[in-house]
Amino acid sequence: LHVLVVGAPAAHYDVVADAGARGLGARVHVTGFVDDTELGAYLAAADICACLRWPSNGETSASWWRAMAAGKATIITDLVHQPELPVVDPRGWRTLGPPGAAPVAVSLPILDEHRTLVDALDVLSRSAVTRAEIGDEARRYWQARHTLDQMAEAYVALVGRAAARATHSPAVGVPAHLRVEGDEHLTALLAPFGVNTPDGVAGR
User: Fold this and answer.
1) pTM assigned to the model
2) How far apart are CA 143 and CA 129, in angstroms?
């Protein structure tokens, strides 16, 4: 098993030094920055793609989408905001997500990441058939849901719905501490000294 780290190295972690210290220097390869035009070749060279993300801000990984589009079996982190994904849990190799849906990735529970990563790599590295099945399903899933054209169409539709509701915007109550600008208190503090509230303070 060889690990190919595609992209600029992290400032806080030296993966090459860590691999060397563990006697794995010959099996870890770091590309450095890779231009978008070259990413396809690196994806084509990989048998398995790992897109592990922690912590997450609730975003979706564009690098994972690229791997899915390339039809690759991927290993991802089980994130709380992605419960709709059909994935394989390495603990018993069972499918999670919508009933009857074929898995599009192998998903690792963050609290058991090390052991389940070993299990996932063991299964995927031994079975080209399993890799192909997950990769093919991932490609179909991406094609059905995540192309750039679909994203653009969704944004246009959303903006249209928002514009149509603009005249029916709900009344939003603002908390009291946000309704008070603060200059009332400042004016009271300055009054005994005969000083007016300066311009430019609290919305003036």
Assistant:
1) 0.76
2) 21
